[in-house]
Amino acid sequence: MTKRDDFTPVAEQIPFDNSDNNFDAEDVQGAIEEFGTSASPGFGFGRSGTVSSGAWLLRSGGVPSNKTGVTIGISSPVLVGIDAGNEDVSTFDVAIYEHDGNNTNSTLLTTVSVTSARTQSFTSIDFGTVTATKGKQLAVKVTSGSAKNLGVDITLKGTA
I want to staple 42 with a disulfide (CB 3.0 to 4.6 A). Which of 53, 61, 153, 160 is the partner? Predict the structure, then answer.
């Protein structure tokens, strides 16, 4: 095994460009550690057929997300991405909520607007810094417009 000398840089001494990738880290070591704490690939919600304004999306298993959402299991969660896809070119708004279960203590986290598209991706740059709460449940609702066979994925980052 070779021994590291004083002239070989370590990961925390190498700059990391975080300008377009949703990382906070400014050095390679920080980026490695931050990458290991993401909830990627994300939490998926969806609903088949035409989904109109006021409809809650379903979590895996077909349960309405406002009744039993996806539990946030990481500490210091921050919303870093929302991806929405649907069958047709549509215009609609999607709201992301957190709640305690059965829509109790429901809090709106953010809303994104899909405009004349089948697929649209949003990053924290698009909707600002949105924090969530460990132990709460995520839910997704269409708040205006409509979409056919809608799927929404949410990506959080935090610590294990």
Answer: 153
Number of domains in the chain: 2
Question: Domain span at residue 59?
Answer: 41-159
Q: How does pLDDT run across 96-117, given as a tens digit for each residue?
A: 999 999 999 999 999 999 999 9
DSSP 88-131: EEEEEEEEEEEESSTTTT-EEEEEEEEEEEEEEEEEHHHH--EE
- Write down the residue that tokens 């700059």 correspond to: 15
101/125 Cα distance (integer angstroms): 29
Q: Are 52 and 110 in contact (CB under 8 A)?
A: no
Do residue 6 and residue 68 come from a single domain?
no
Query: Residue holding tokens 């309405």?
Result: 64
Based on the domain organization, do 66 and 26 belong to the same domain?
no
Going by pLDDT thresholds of 50, 70 and 90, the confidence category of residue 150 is very high
Q: How far apart are CA 16 and CA 30, in angstroms?
A: 8
> pLDDT digit string (tens) for 120-137?
999 988 888 899 999 999
